[in-house]
């Protein structure tokens, strides 16, 4: 029994079919508990007032935006090295989820920034690198959509994901460097680790768990759709041949 | 409803937009899943109706 | 290898595509900017380095889909793939010839266009240095993007979406080097990073480009 058994689409469909309802329910429960706890039962921050409640959406989605890309990178590597189709399809399935997470992080950040910094958008290193990540997701999905042959598409997007990861990381540090020339970043960046007190910390943890499980559930669901569609097109081409 | 003070608009709009995006994403995924299921079922039914030569 | 390079250069010059077109685009872009932001020379001289860098980026982008497209259509690429010359080397040469017909002329033309934008004279040296160091990376990355989209009918628009995010670090360090140079700050770090990106691209991207080409030709 090894993890590679799940590379078999049938095995994957069986196991993920059992797992999916469980993960969905758990993620729904965590999200509800985390967000309701955060929204209704936490005190206001003495400095930021009630806007601190945005943290329960902003931090988990930002976290998942990066982790979704990491997951795509790992899945792409597995596809390139071991040629497991499920892996390639999982990477494809994760991209829109990651895109949505990046969008949520950007939007909540902008809405939060308006009262706190006096502006919706500043070319702060963190904000800028998230915008760049958003563009990377767009390019990755566009490449998937553009290529007809599914195996070639999986190959090329995997390569793009590898090169893109290097350059996304590079952009992160380049942007840090670039902003120093303009102004001190500290006035605009929130040091979250120090800022968060226990009252905010536990609902935040639950909310993060909810986002992680939601990501997992969505990736499972979407991978299952992709596998079905792949099988359908395989059957159609077999019909044409006979 | 907790008292959100002067930032009520900010907090509420952040929650509404985020939850809307999440629901949209989930709905899209579920819809695609249904579609893929229906498509596969249709093709397999056709295959079973016409036995392979 | 030399023969391939010569052939590419000849084709590029005779077809009149990349060579003239990229430069003309660069010129037009620089002419358009003052119409957009107004003729105030203070503002123009402040944004000149950035405009010139972005202009160079976009002009590079313009000719990218030609790198492999014609060779793919007439079968030359298949020959290259089976030739004794490794595909990695072919990809490097393609990038080199792209740089020679776009990056190099852009670098040489940039000081002249800088005059149009009231760029301070002390910035000129840094602009040329940063463009000379940075544009090879742009060509390497562009070759990679072209290799990814070579089999597609309408890859032109997709290429920009794929390649522009990859251009960002180069742009940041390049424009930052010029800005610091203009303000009299040390530029060593920015230029060193720029050179590091170019060196890293030259070392690693040919493998990625060649892998993408093989996948597309399979």
UniProtKB/TrEMBL annotation, chain A:
<keyword id="KW-0472">Membrane</keyword>
<keyword id="KW-0812">Transmembrane</keyword>
<feature type="transmembrane region" description="Helical">
    <location>
        <begin position="127"/>
        <end position="147"/>
    </location>
</feature>
<dbReference type="InterPro" id="IPR003557">
    <property type="entry name" value="Cyt_c_biogenesis_CcmC"/>
</dbReference>
<protein>
    <recommendedName>
        <fullName>Heme exporter protein C</fullName>
    </recommendedName>
</protein>
<keyword id="KW-0997">Cell inner membrane</keyword>
<dbReference type="GO" id="GO:0005886">
    <property type="term" value="C:plasma membrane"/>
</dbReference>
<feature type="transmembrane region" description="Helical">
    <location>
        <begin position="20"/>
        <end position="41"/>
    </location>
</feature>
<dbReference type="InterPro" id="IPR045062">
    <property type="entry name" value="Cyt_c_biogenesis_CcsA/CcmC"/>
</dbReference>
<dbReference type="Pfam" id="PF01578">
    <property type="entry name" value="Cytochrom_C_asm"/>
</dbReference>
<dbReference type="GO" id="GO:0015232">
    <property type="term" value="F:heme transmembrane transporter activity"/>
</dbReference>
<dbReference type="InterPro" id="IPR002541">
    <property type="entry name" value="Cyt_c_assembly"/>
</dbReference>
<feature type="transmembrane region" description="Helical">
    <location>
        <begin position="93"/>
        <end position="112"/>
    </location>
</feature>
<keyword id="KW-0201">Cytochrome c-type biogenesis</keyword>
<comment type="similarity">
    <text>Belongs to the CcmC/CycZ/HelC family.</text>
</comment>
From TrEMBL, chain B:
<feature type="transmembrane region" description="Helical">
    <location>
        <begin position="12"/>
        <end position="31"/>
    </location>
</feature>
<dbReference type="InterPro" id="IPR007078">
    <property type="entry name" value="Haem_export_protD_CcmD"/>
</dbReference>
<keyword id="KW-0813">Transport</keyword>
<comment type="similarity">
    <text>Belongs to the CcmD/CycX/HelD family.</text>
</comment>
<dbReference type="GO" id="GO:0015886">
    <property type="term" value="P:heme transport"/>
</dbReference>
<keyword id="KW-0997">Cell inner membrane</keyword>
<dbReference type="GO" id="GO:0017004">
    <property type="term" value="P:cytochrome complex assembly"/>
</dbReference>
<keyword id="KW-0812">Transmembrane</keyword>
<dbReference type="GO" id="GO:0005886">
    <property type="term" value="C:plasma membrane"/>
</dbReference>
<dbReference type="Pfam" id="PF04995">
    <property type="entry name" value="CcmD"/>
</dbReference>
<keyword id="KW-1003">Cell membrane</keyword>
<protein>
    <recommendedName>
        <fullName>Heme exporter protein D</fullName>
    </recommendedName>
</protein>
<keyword id="KW-0201">Cytochrome c-type biogenesis</keyword>
<keyword id="KW-1133">Transmembrane helix</keyword>
<keyword id="KW-0472">Membrane</keyword>
Automatic annotation (TrEMBL), chain C:
<dbReference type="Pfam" id="PF03379">
    <property type="entry name" value="CcmB"/>
</dbReference>
<keyword id="KW-1003">Cell membrane</keyword>
<keyword id="KW-0812">Transmembrane</keyword>
<feature type="transmembrane region" description="Helical">
    <location>
        <begin position="99"/>
        <end position="119"/>
    </location>
</feature>
<feature type="transmembrane region" description="Helical">
    <location>
        <begin position="43"/>
        <end position="64"/>
    </location>
</feature>
<dbReference type="GO" id="GO:0005886">
    <property type="term" value="C:plasma membrane"/>
</dbReference>
<keyword id="KW-0997">Cell inner membrane</keyword>
<dbReference type="InterPro" id="IPR003544">
    <property type="entry name" value="Cyt_c_biogenesis_CcmB"/>
</dbReference>
<feature type="transmembrane region" description="Helical">
    <location>
        <begin position="125"/>
        <end position="150"/>
    </location>
</feature>
<dbReference type="InterPro" id="IPR026031">
    <property type="entry name" value="Cyt_c_CcmB_bac"/>
</dbReference>
<keyword id="KW-0813">Transport</keyword>
<comment type="function">
    <text>Required for the export of heme to the periplasm for the biogenesis of c-type cytochromes.</text>
</comment>
<comment type="similarity">
    <text>Belongs to the CcmB/CycW/HelB family.</text>
</comment>
<keyword id="KW-1133">Transmembrane helix</keyword>
<keyword id="KW-0201">Cytochrome c-type biogenesis</keyword>
């Amino acid at each position: 029994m090894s993890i590679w058994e799940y590379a078999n689409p049938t095995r994957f469909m069986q196991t993920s079919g059992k797992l999916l309802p469980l993960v969905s329910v758990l993620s729904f429960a965590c999200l509800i508990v985390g967000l309701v706890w955060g929204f209704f039962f936490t005190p206001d921050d003495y400095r930021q007032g009630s806007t601190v409640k945005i943290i329960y959406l902003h931090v988990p989605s930002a976290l998942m935006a990066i982790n979704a890309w990491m997951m795509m990178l790992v899945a792409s590597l597995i596809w390139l090295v071991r040629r497991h189709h499920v892996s390639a399809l999982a990477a494809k399935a994760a991209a829109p989820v990651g895109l949505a997470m990046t969008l949520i992080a950007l939007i909540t950040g902008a809405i939060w920034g308006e009262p706190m910094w006096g502006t919706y958008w500043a070319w702060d290193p963190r904000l800028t690198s998230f915008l760049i990540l958003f563009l990377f997701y767009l390019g990755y999905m566009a490449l998937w959509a553009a290529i007809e042959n599914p195996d070639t598409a999986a190959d090329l997007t995997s390569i793009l994901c590898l090169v893109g990861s290097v350059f996304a990381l590079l952009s992160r540090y380049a942007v840090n460097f670039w902003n120093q020339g303009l102004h001190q970043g500290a006035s605009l960046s929130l040091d979250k680790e120090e800022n968060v007190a226990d009252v905010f910390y536990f609902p935040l943890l639950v909310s993060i768990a909810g986002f992680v499980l939601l990501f997992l559930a969505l990736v499972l669901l979407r991978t299952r759709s992709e596998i079905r569609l792949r099988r359908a097109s395989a059957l159609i081409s077999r019909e044409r041949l006979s | 409803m907790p008292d959100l003070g002067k930032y009520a608009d900010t907090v509420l709009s952040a929650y509404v937009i985020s939850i809307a995006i999440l629901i949209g994403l989930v709905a899209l995924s579920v819809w695609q899943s249904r579609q893929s299921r229906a498509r596969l079922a249709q093709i397999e039914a056709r295959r079973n109706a016409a036995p392979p030569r | 290898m030399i023969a391939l390079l010569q052939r590419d250069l000849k084709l590029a010059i005779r077809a009149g595509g990349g060579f003239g077109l990229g430069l003309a685009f660069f010129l037009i872009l620089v002419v358009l900017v003052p119409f957009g932001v107004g003729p105030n020379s203070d503002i123009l001289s402040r944004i000149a380095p950035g405009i010139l860098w972005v202009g160079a980026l976009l002009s590079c982008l313009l000719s990218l889909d030609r790198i492999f497209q014609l060779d793919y259509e007439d079968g030359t690429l298949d020959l290259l793939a089976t030739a004794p010359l490794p595909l990695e080397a072919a990809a490097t040469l393609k990038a080199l010839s792209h740089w020679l017909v776009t990056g190099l002329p852009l670098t040489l033309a940039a000081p002249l266009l800088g005059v149009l934008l009231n760029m301070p004279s002390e910035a000129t040296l840094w602009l040329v240095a940063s463009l000379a160091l940075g544009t090879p990376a742009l060509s390497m990355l562009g070759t990679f993007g072209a290799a990814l989209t070579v089999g597609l009918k309408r890859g032109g628009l997709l290429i920009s979406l794929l390649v522009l995010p990859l251009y960002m670090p180069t742009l940041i360090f390049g424009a930052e080097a010029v800005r610091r140079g203009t303000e009299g700050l040390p530029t060593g770090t920015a230029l060193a990073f720029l050179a590091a990106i170019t060196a890293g691209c030259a070392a690693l991207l040919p493998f990625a480009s060649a892998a993408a080409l093989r996948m597309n030709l399979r």
